[in-house]
What does this fold into?
Amino acid sequence: MGTVLIIGAGGVGRVVAFKCAQHRDVFKEIILASRTKKKCDKIAADVKEKLGGKKIKTAKVDADFPEQTIKIIEKYNPDIVINVALPYQDLAIMDACLATKTHYLDTANYEPKEEAKFEYSWQWAYQNKFKKAGIMAVLGCGFDPGVTQVFTARAAKHHFDEMHYLDIVDCNGGDHGKAFATNFNPEINIREITQRGKYWQDGQWVETEPFEHKKMIDYPNIGKRASYLLYHEELESLVKHFPTIKRARFWMTFGEEYLTHLRVIQNIGMARIDPVRFKGKDIIPLQFLKAVLPDPGSLGDNYSGETSIGCRIKGIKDGKEKTYYIYNNCSHQKAFEETGAQGVSYTTGVPAMLGAKLVLEKKWTGKGVFNVEQLDPDPFLDKLGEYGLAWHEKVNVKLGMD
Ligand code: NDP
It folds into this structure.
């Protein structure tokens, strides 16, 4: 039915490649391109060994340069590009898609390299250009952002007349046995969590110090874990598209050991993203740190435990107060056995493949730039469990989020 170009050969790229290769009826041709071609070749070889079938083609691309991506698109003529490189490349890859009239999907919103600031304004500014070109961009189709918005869209469509309080709760209850490691790209991860926090309350953003708000949250099959309020990008689009929401917050678990390491990293200046002169060369401390930390892609072996991510929502249905909780738990070990990647890469890669599949099947259609909550949640949730991420919902239970 179609051809897909995947850009980025990290943990998430690996999962997307495996999942696309499991759906050859839709993804007839798969091309995996990244900055380091040998990482693409390794993934292609692993897919071939495990699943057989037609070999994934690989290519080298520096996606910071649209002309390089355009060249690959012109060579292979994909129907959609799945961008699982880094958020820095989003706009350059969107430019290449515009130039070639190719659909686009990513899992994280654009961030400029020189400033740890994520907001949708840059990508929303492409709305008219994508519309005019007659193509679709699906933004943030991983787990969070991604499935959390599909979950919220399901709540709005099937469970509430008005949603008032939304808490997105993200727990990694896994243990990789390392003193300190991040579950996805360390540079992006540390930039995200060391920022000031922010949540939506009564029509405006309320800023917090990093890690200022802590709550013990009970996660299914994991138990109570210390969770901290963070700003997360999907809050911006969710409060825009569901204006009845009075309060929207995002919580993520961190262990004491992790927070201690993070404090030290910050205190000694290793989280800095401004250039520092070292032996006659400019280096960015956080990029250097990334080079010495464990590669998130290598964490899968011996990674035990589960992730649990979901949405806890309170609102009104038929004039009565209602609570609703929808979530997925994902086992690191099962993810690793299937794809060679740990659960955080898996929970991101499965939705990216599924979103792209729905676009190719024309179950998600439209011209312009879309956040996933603007698209129909039903065909997505019909398949999410079957493709590896079973979800569960509970109605009128105690949310534990007051
Ligand atoms: P990794 O760092 O493991 O992989 C990133 C890949 O992108 C690497 O192969 C890297 O190449 C490649 N890359 C970097 N720069 C370029 C470039 N200029 N041109 C081409 N390729 C490039 O990251 P992850 O796989 O962990 O994460 C991938 C994306 O997924 C990130 O954007 C991350 O923010 C997002 N994510 C989203 C989540 C969600 O739930 N929505 C959760 C987790 C991640 P090289 O090997 O040469 O460095």
